[in-house]
Amino acid sequence: MNLPIRMIIAGLLLTPLTLVDTAAAAESVDSKPNVVIMIADDVSWNDFGCYGNPAARTPHIDALASQGLRFTEAFLTASSCSPSRASIITGRYPHNLGRAAELHEPIAANLAWFPTVLRQSGYYTALVGKNHMTPEPPAVGQSKPAKPWDLVDPGVTPDNHGAEARWTATIKNRPKDKPFFCWFASLDAHRNWDADNEWVEQKYGPKHQPEDVIVPPFLADEPATRQDLASYYNEVTRFDYFVGEVTQTLASEGELDNTLILVLADNGRPFPRAKTRLHDSGMKTALVAHWPKGIAGEGVTTSSLVSVIDIAPTVIEVAGAEIPETIQGVSMTPIFGDPQSTIRRFAFSEHNWHDFEAHGRSVRDGQFLYIRNSRPELAWQGPADSVRSPSHQTLRRLRDGEKLSDAQADVFLEPRPVEELYKTEDDPNQLNNLAFAPEYKQVKSRLSKVLDQWTDETGDAVPEELTPDYFDRETGDSLKLGKGQKRKRGTPPGGPKDAIHIHRPGPR
User: Fold this and answer.
1) Mind listing the pLDDT tens digit for each residue in 207-233?
2) Range of the domain at 407
3) Do 339 and 359 fall within a single domain?
4) What's the whole-model pTM score?
5) Sulfatase N-terminal domain location, by residue (predicted)?
6) What is the DSSP string of 22-84?
């Protein structure tokens, strides 16, 4: 098992490598900081130990949090793999990315990626693991965008389909004369559960047991669901193990103090009422920052509101480079110096096509979550892989037997409310919709106006023709096409207003 950070550093002091490592650390004192982002796939914010889950084992992420900065109000812009990653890499809202607002689609060619900015500033840049971010080919007469990566490695090995096995080798084999940026993207915890078959107890400890998992109120507390969650927890723990390996490697290379580490996830767990949802179970993310040279204090928690589009300007500022005008986020560095600092009042999120037709928007102010749904006639049952899961099919069986609780029934609800409002501190699972409560009329009106302003200033829209369903909403099976038919793509949400050329961030 990997050791917590304090023990890693203490152990290094007792080895013959001490003189080499100390010299390397001293040499890097005046150099630009390195940056390592480790991003989990499909993990909800509260499925790390340091965020309150006593069952999912994440000792290495917990150790980073105990030595660094833990964000409690960090939010994604999309609870959908490629739109979320594209949003992070460009520092822009999904509808401002062109077709990339929807799953599996490319990012508009005119937009800057922050790894490109780092590479042009002298950084060695590497992507190892899940990519899922592609640029659109440049238009006729438009120059080809600069290369963002020196190294791209899918990272999958025969004994590790989580794509983490070559993370540490990437750090060790990097050019030693440059600062480095590594985007380490795990495939854990994306379905299907390969960690169960690749489990190494000497590394990861014992497998999680179904009787120990935490079953959220919108899932059924039945054996199939508990086993589903246990397998999911195994993938979370495997991701954590490799976070520890990277940390240990940075320490042994003498680079830990001079490296900004960020740990987060791209969207919520692949279970009903999580992934693709605008509620916290889908859109809130864990975000742990560790950087001894750049973050004041240890084991600090901040409730300052941040969006993942704030990562790009943060990293660029830390690297001493110029922030492109296309970036809509705002740097988090004031929070690194003072966890009480405020960099934004609002965080916005989107629900666009991910296997199924959808158009939803939300705004948070740190106290309330306001949601607006432009397709209320359609259920928000979750993506196709979640629909095919034992957890969803168990709920479906209970539904047919009229045995669902209100929280569980929300998975199948249609029509849905056009508006939802939640006081998140009092209602962490967002089960009590206050949108039509008289005492919250002013709150709803205020946040509705903020969302209107953001929609207008950033060029969002509800196209007449959205991309339709590709899968069956009951079974998750792919919808069959007639002979000669092709899958249709509708107009992306930013298309009607040419939002790829709008760089205004809206209210923040």
Assistant:
1) 999 999 999 999 999 999 999 999 999
2) 350-479
3) no
4) 0.94
5) 33-321
6) HHHHHHTTTSPPEEEEEEESS--GGGSGGGT-SSS--HHHHHHHHHSEEESSEE-SBSSHHHH
